[in-house]
Amino acid sequence: MHTKIEWDLCIPNDLQVAGYKEIISDEDVYTEGEISLIGELE
Predict the structure, then answer these.
(1) pLDDT at res. 5
(2) What confidence tens digit (pLDDT) does each residue in 1-17 have?
(3) DSSP secondary structure string, the chain?
(4) Burial (CB count <10 Å: 0-12, 13-18, 19+), residue 38
């Protein structure tokens, strides 16, 4: 079986998904993004 996540990706149930929100704030720059890790994350 597979798990369907955002972006219509199908991830096998024996793999894990971890997501992190990235925020970079400097004097005149502010950006936000997301980092996703998929695999055996133990």
Answers:
(1) 60
(2) 566 666 777 888 888 88
(3) -EEEEGGGEEEETTSEEEEEEEEEE-SS-EEEEEEEEEE---
(4) middle
Dist CA 21 CA 33 (whole Å): 6
Please state the length of the chain.
Answer: 42
Closest CA to 36 of 22, 23, 2, 13: 22
Instruction: Tell me whether strands 30-39 and 16-25 are parallel, antiparallel or unpaired.
Output: antiparallel
Tell if the pTM clears 0.70, that is, is over it: no
- State the average pLDDT for the chain: 84
Beta-carbon count within 10 A of 10 CB: 9
